[in-house]
Amino acid sequence: MNIYTVKQGDSLYAIAQEFGVSEQSLIAANQLDYPDRLVVGQALVIESEPIVYEVRQGDSLYSISQRFGVTIPAILRANPEISYNQVIYPRQIIRIPSVPAYQRRVDVNGYAYPFITDETLSATLPFLTFISIFSYSPRPNGSLIPINDNGVIATAKQRQVAPLMVLTNFDESGNFSSELASEILRNPYAQDVLLNNIIRVMEEKGYYGLDVDFEYIARADRRNYVAFLEKTVQRLHPLGYQVSTALAAKDSLEQEGPLTEGVDYRAIGEIVDMVLIMTYDWGYKYGPPMAVSPYNKVDQAIAVAVSEIPHDKVLMGMPNYGYDWPLPYTSGVPASLIMNREAVNLAVNTGSEIRFDETAKSPYFYYNRSGRQHVVWFDDARSFQAKLGLIEKYRLRGMGYWNINTLFLPGWLVLNSMYNVNIGKESPFKR
Q: Where are the alpha helices (DSSP H) in 206-329?
């Protein structure tokens, strides 16, 4: 796979001719809403044209994968119309993708809200090992606030993707609450009730594991959180369930602040089966303009994480959004959330040149609206490729995507070109 950066005077036709691919394949792979209006600095993924193969009598997905040296999940990703459990038939035409540059296998987790569309879910599941459905929240007495997750679970399991139940310390208003966390973490009885409820839901709905995402844990609850995770593992492991957690990124082990002061990397890493490091939100809604997930910051945070947590338990977080800041930046004036595809369309419609910061390895551009200048930072194929390379550098278990409710196909195609993604039954993280 190639990543091409648009230059002055380029056209989609000329780029397609140069790389020997069709314009339609470029439009589809890059989700181009304005294929005849490229902007300077725009990144385009260019996939090698797949081999077109006619299924023969006696063929199976396994035999075809062995013949062409690609994995079954890779074939499924290239042919989303084939369900994993369906039988292929003679004379059926399927596409055989090129072999990824890296043969290393990784686990990929995607966080999804239950209201994800069927179209987006179906397009994304072939790239996932797990899907974490966001989220169940406890009440102080240990009861759970339910969510409508049945549809996502059923679809995920049909495609051999393992659904994970997500537990957050969201309060009734939908915000992370350190007070709610404290009420649970300091009350052994409420914890027992909560774990009983979690087990009931997991058994009823067919979850494969539990992901605990407690944030803004008070310093005074640092040990209590470790003890709660230890109790959770002791209850769930004998039942065949695994336990993961999401932890805030740290620039150093001594970092202070409300997101990190209650987090003990080493102790938690020894207890749970998998840890997502939330390597994003350096650029955030109320902060100054910068990349959401700058490469240099992510690199530093992952280095800190693997100094305390076994590298083969660590997933690197990847954001699926950017921000649009009015300039000059004023503290307290919020930026606007913008999706990566939406950011490219905004650049096209405002005629803005997309620039690339080599330190953050992230794209950005300026534009004017109603007489005021704005700056937009987002992610594209180049920034994905740079950050995904850290999985190989640190020998990580894989990556986790926040969140998958909006499809950004170029990011998935870059991932697919670099690694072989485990499907649920191939991962050791499996009930």
A: 222-236, 265-271, 295-306
| Contact residues for 300 (Cβ-Cβ < 8 A; gap 6+) | 251
Is residue 328 assigned to a domain?
A: no
pLDDT of 168-204, one tens digit each? 999 988 899 999 999 999 999 999 999 999 999 999 9
Q: Which element (helix H / strand E) includes 369?
A: strand 362-369
For the cut 60, the answer to whether the pLDDT of residue 429 exceeds it is no
Q: What is the CATH number of the domain that holds 8?
A: 3.10.350.10
Residues 92 and 114 in one domain: no
Q: Name the domain count of the chain.
A: 2
Q: Where are the alpha helices (DSSP H) in 31-177?
A: 61-68, 72-78, 118-124, 150-158
Per-residue pLDDT tens for 5-17? 999 999 999 999 9
Nearest Cα neighbor of 405 from 133, 163, 12, 173 is: 133
Mean model confidence pLDDT for the chain: 93
pTM of the model: 0.91
SS3 call for 165 = strand
Active site residues: 215
Peptide bond connecting 178 to the previous residue in cis, omega within 30 degrees of 0: no
37 vs 11: CA distance, rounded Å:
8
Does a structural domain hold residue 372?
A: no
The tens digit of pLDDT for each residue in 72-98 reads: 777 877 787 776 556 788 999 998 887
* Four-CA torsion 393, 395, 397, 403, nearest 10 degrees: -10
Domain extent at residue 268: 105-320+383-426
Q: What percent of the chain has pLDDT over 70?
A: 96
Domain assignment of residue 342, yes or no: no
Q: In which residue are the tokens 């090992």 written?
A: 129
Report whether pLDDT(320) > 50.
yes
372-377/242-248 β-pairing? unpaired
Look at residues 50, 65, 96 and tell me which one is the last residue of a structural domain.
96
